[in-house]
Here is the input.
Amino acid sequence: MSGDASQTESTQRLRDALADGRLEQWRVPLGLLALVVFLRPVIGHEFLLNYPPFANTILVWMLFAASFNVLLGYTGLLSFGHGMFLGFGAYGAAIGLTRFDLPFTVSAVIGLAVAAVVAYLIGRIIAQRGEIYFAMLTLAFAKAAHFIANQNYGGLTGGSTGIVGVLPSWIETERGVKYVAAGGFQFDWYYLLGAVFVLAALAIWQIARSPFGRSLVAVRENEELARAVGIDDKRYKIWSFTFSGVFAALAGVLYAINNQGSSLSTLTVETSGDIILMTVLGGANYFFGPLAGVFVWLFSEEFLIEFETLVLPLAEYPLVRIELGGLLSYWQFFLGLLFVISVLVAPREGLWGLFRSGIGGLYDRVRGVRE
Amino acid sequence: MSDTATTARSADVVLETEGLTKQFGGLTALEHVDLAVERGELHAIIGPNGAGKTTLFNTITGALDPTAGTVWFDGEDVTEMAQEKRPHRGLARSFQSNQLFADLSVLENVRIVVQTARSGRFGLDLLGNGRAKYRDAAFEYLERVGLDGERTTLAKNLSHGDQRRLGIAISLATDPSVLLLDEPTSGMGPTETQETADMIDELQQDLDLTVLLIEHDMDIVLSMSDRITVLNQGEVLATDSPGAIQENEDVQNAYLGGMREEL
Here is the structure.
């Protein structure tokens, strides 16, 4: 019997550790490091995309998604205009560099500061509106930003072409691959991007697990109860919106290097919509969910486009005359279907939730742990 | 004006409403309610469905703005005070329906509230592991309501009765001096109801609470209360000791008698 008791006790201790985030303390930082280390070889593998620099794009979007999830996942706020903040970062960096001849880092910091102030002010205006008004107002502000950038007031934003062909002085390009050149050293841009990504993602994770972040979760779970126990939900929403905007702008700064400038597409409704879809597909409930969503989305897009253009020798085998290429050109349809299913089954769980419950079920079966 | 009025209030009265009125469109839910809750008492609010009991709680706690009238708490006019400030002054409530942080663990439900009570209604506290802070304090509240064995269970997976108890633990975690309990025994069987009543009694003694209680079970109300206020159609019919309330003819006609006949 004592064996049983210690069994349940150790199970309980494990549950406690899972519940208060002690395991997470190592899992998330190590997971982020592993992600950066393994992403590029995987993406670059000849059987997959065979194009290592695409890992850069994925990391930028992952940071964008992680920033967006501060709002959607942790605070329960759905913004339809988050591309606006990506744009602030990208345009801020590019405008400072080209129009004012500022060093890249200074322009980037200005971009982040502008994003922070604008996010805070917009947050103040819309934080206390109902869900649908919040969504509509974010959409409206993003539309306004798009309009302004498209109008090219004072020649600042470059209108519909955006600002192209811009790079900081310390970035060199060789046959399409970017290198950081600093103090006689030259290394692949991916490593600097990866380092910034890990630090920024860790900062987001720390915000989410801090006492501040737990209050956001309380607001997400039950606004009425949160207010009744003394949580100032409005201010938490405003600051959540601000942090989310700043980290999205940081993703925008990285975007500006990665894409050699800023394009109007950052400010479009499509961009804001894509980040919602990626986040929800991956699983807004989890820190790694949105990152998984970005990976699956962008990888499928790239991989299947590649696949379409491959000359498959299928026609040479008369028995297997399957028009695979034609079928795969509907990849967006299949991804959409996957999205719909994951929302219907568990709207906040996504692919990462599915993955975790799969692992958890396996673990339980191995350990013989019963609920 | 309010300064002189503040000092004129009786020191024994911790919570008071004066001419409290709440209208929803053309419907008057509360009509000029005068209520005085004395420090340390258990004061029950009874009345038929739709009498305005929960609306009274909502206007006292600030979840609803009153149409007219004043709410005094601890000698201060709190009528205009933001709802989220009031728990920090010591005014807490539980809800009639189970209001919980449904997808969080039982412990985390209470821990977040302890955190709020100790660090204020807003804080940019961005360091450390939030879920590890105040765990022990939160655990003590769970022990008080008998939920310590369920600490890792998700709130939404608790039984109805346990959810009611968690609701009480949450309101206790705000460290209140006055606790408003909205039908803490609703949906419970007779045994569970009695257990909950005993628990409230014990909590009141241990934590030195003033309790304002909405309750339907007449046996509980009559045995526990120091005083009872009867609401009917938004108006106070009577406020008195349980014995006197039972004798009161108006109350018998409007409420108790009607209820006995129903039974």
About this structure: Confidence is low (pLDDT under 50) at residues 1-8 of chain B. Chain B has two domains: 1-90+178-184+210-263, 92-175. The longest strand of chain B covers residues 13-24.
